[in-house]
């Protein structure tokens, strides 16, 4: 049986992001890309499930950056059996969640997995809709914000995080789609020497696809956040700090 993991590269938000002169895109020459953190957890959870069940893990990604190979080879080095890259004329564009889901569904249907795992969300959209959209298009049950899963007697039992540290356990019939927030353990490390070995010995399957019409949003303007205020660090004795707080509140008409 097969477990599919959807993997996406996103801009590295640790670095300063610059807007292109057009004002409608990032300066992609200055952007470095990394694997979406939640997708890394989805891969780890898939590998844990496969180690217990004997399933085959297949990593699938849409190449919007032109740099997806490194991510897919790393997935192979960690234990995925196959890697599939979807390419098209959408390189350098931002695909909406719905567009990405529609590109992925035919490949998922072809592979016939019993589970599809995605990261719960990505930092370039923060909408958390890829897993539920895939589930809706496939007609499969779905759970998101998953922090653990187990295949038991033909079903998948998942732990889902709610609020305030509360969790709930669900049982889904297979096939199903999971949006993973955190794997049961930290994503495994693989040395670069192992990745390079895999690059020599393995191959990535490439599929040419077309983005669905009307589902690639047109960006009108990008802006950096406006500075609307400033912070003041208060120092001194407790009495001096208290006097300064009262002074600030009075200056703003709050006292």
Can you put this structure into words, describing what you see?
The chain is an alpha/beta fold. It has a single domain (2-208), classed as Rossmann fold (3-Layer(aba) Sandwich), CATH 3.40.50.620. The chain is 30% helix and 25% strand. It contains 6 helices and 11 strands. It has helices at residues 37-53, 68-78, 97-111, 130-138, 192-201, 238-251; strands at residues 2-7, 9-11, 33-35, 56-62, 82-87, 115-119, 142-152, 155-161, 167-173, 176-180, 205-208. The strands form 2 sheets. It has a 9-stranded mixed sheet, with helices on both faces. Helix 3 (97-111) crosses helix 4 (130-138). It is globular. The mean pLDDT is 89.
What does the overall shape look like?
A: globular
Question: What is the CATH C-level name?
Answer: Alpha Beta
* Run of helices and strands: EEEHEHEHEHEEEEHEH
How many β-strands, per DSSP?
11
Report the portion of residues in β strands: 25-35%
Oligomeric assembly: single chain
Can you tell me the residue ranges where pLDDT is under 50 for at least 5 consecutive residues? Answer: none
Distance between the termini: 68 Å
Radius of gyration: 22 Å
Tell me about the biggest sheet?
9 strands, mixed
* Total domain count: 1
CATH superfamily: HUPs
Adjacency order of strands in the biggest sheet: 9-8-7-10-6-1-4-5-11
Structural class computed from helices and strand pairing:
alpha/beta
CATH fold-type name: Rossmann fold
- Mean pLDDT, nearest integer? 89
Number of helices: 6
């Amino acid at each position: 049986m097969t477990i599919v993991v959807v993997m996406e590269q996103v801009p590295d938000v640790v670095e300063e992001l610059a807007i292109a002169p057009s004002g409608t895109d990032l300066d992609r020459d200055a952007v470095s890309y990394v694997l979406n953190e939640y997708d890394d957890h989805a891969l780890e959870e898939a590998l844990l499930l496969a180690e217990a069940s004997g399933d085959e893990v297949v990593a699938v990604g849409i190449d919007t950056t032109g740099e997806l190979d490194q991510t897919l080879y790393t997935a192979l080095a960690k234990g995925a059996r196959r890697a599939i890259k979807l390419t098209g004329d959408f390189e350098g564009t931002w695909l909406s969640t719905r567009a990405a889901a529609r590109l992925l569904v035919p490949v998922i249907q072809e592979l016939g997995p019993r589970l599809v795992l995605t990261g719960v969300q990505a930092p370039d959209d923060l909408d958390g809709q890829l897993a539920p959209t895939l589930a809706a298009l496939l007609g499969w049950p779905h759970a998101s914000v998953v922090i653990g899963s187990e295949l038991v007697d033909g079903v998948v039992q998942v732990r889902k995080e709610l609020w305030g540290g509360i969790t709930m356990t669900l049982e889904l019939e297979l096939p199903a789609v999971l949006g993973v927030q955190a794997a049961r353990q930290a994503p495994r490390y693989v040395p670069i020497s192992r990745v390079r070995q895999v690059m020599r010995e393995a191959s990535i399957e490439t599929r040419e696809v077309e983005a669905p019409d009307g589902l690639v949003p047109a960006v009108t303007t990008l802006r950096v956040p406006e500075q609307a205020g400033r912070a003041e660090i208060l120092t001194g004795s407790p009495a001096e700090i208290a006097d300064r707080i009262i002074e600030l509140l009075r200056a703003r008409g709050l006292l």
